[in-house]
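Minutes, project check-in
Item: structure for the 414-residue chain
Input as provided by the requester:
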Amino acid sequence: MDMLHVVHGYYPALGGSEHFMQCLSEHLVARYGDRVTVYTANGYNTEVFVNPSLPVLPPGEFELNGVRVRRFAVYNRFGKLFYNVQQMAYRLHLPGNQYLRTWCCGPILPGLGRSVETYGGDIVTATAFPLLHMYVAQHACRRSGKPIVFYGALHPLDRWGFDRSMIYRAIRQADAYVANSSYERDYLIDTWHVPGEQITVIGSGIEPNRFERADGAHVRQRYGIDDRPLVGFIGQQGRNKGIDTLILAMKQVWEERPEARLLIAGAVTHYTAHLENLIDGELSPAERERITFIHGFAEEEKPGLFAACDLLAYPSRYESFGRAFVEAWAAGKPVIGCRAGAVPSVVEDGTDGILVEVADVDSLGQALLHLLGSPKLRERLGQAGRDKVLRRYTWENVTRCWRELYERVLDRRV
């Protein structure tokens, strides 16, 4: 099979959709011998779509692990100006502001539409909403007659990003849609009347053996944590991730367990400065010493980071799936998440993790103390999570589900 994946970023760009599409592409090549081509932007992250001062990757073509990749140069000369204009239009509820939001946040990639249209393979997949390239890819497929599959990675609670009827109109017009969770599927059916038969729930993939063999002791030694209790947050340092709530909840933990430590590891964003200001303003010097920040890390370091933690605290305000939960489970660790978005359809409260309310510092602090004080509970929840990973979220299973979907879509076109 010959397939084209259109995604807003690709290695070494950071992000959940970016990493997912890299892994899926490489597994399709390795397991099935498929021909996979990726069209992508030349940014390290989505901020470059509106900020011309940020560094970029060189545009052009290359091959990585059997996948052909073409990077298109982002056009962002007036990005900051347009971004401010669309923010004002959104706040004033001006008609058509959803289109302005989409165009202003890009990515604007000259030449992408024509390249998708003339691509000679079997099927196209595009990810993720609410970005502009999704519509560019769909319009190109209409002109060429190629089928298109959307992997939207929706965050319905993010109203600025996803309260746009144009997204759901595009999904209804696609040949198929892949949802990360039953929550996302039900949202599309119940709220936006997307036909259920058009949606396939698959979820994220992982190589569990990488996490099973990981050495957490090395990480603890490197950062001077030794054998102290360690709460981990491992993910992008974004505004919606609830890291601020976690930091404040740790103050409650430290009142009873002053020996506990907090690890925050993930890619830096513009929100990182806010977190640093929060720590300086709300924590005592002794409490600040109990936090270890790792501003970005190589993918091969990730299993060791999870192995080093006693538990994962990931109190995100909204998630399309929450890949960090699966990674923690692969390492046999329990998780704490929030009752928001897709998380309750991924984490089973009391079975493989604990759920708390969004932005509730007290309940998060109590959940942290409960898990830190219960080694047997941590072991039980972590093992249940690992069992779930082996049943549902191995790359072998996920890749097979995607390829079967591609076959169904192509069969309908015959």
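Outcome recorded: Residues 348 and 354 are 7 Å apart (CA to CA).
No further action items on this chain.
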